[in-house]
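Q: We require from you a single protein entry containing the residue sequence and its fold in token form, and nothing else.
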Amino acid sequence: MGVAARYPGRGRIADSNFSNAKWVDGELLVFSPAASPLVTGGARVGFVWSVPNDRRFLILLNRVQLA
């Protein structure tokens, strides 16, 4: 997947209507410039949540120029 660095962290998850909210372990991923844009969508950073007894969820974060 082209991960250049990993940093431990925590992410917030919840059920519908933000009920049963809790913190779970996760990882901040920094993708290498050589990472496949087909996999990362061009994102340079992502976060993976490890939901107990379930699956792992990845969000891709892209930089946005506001001005």
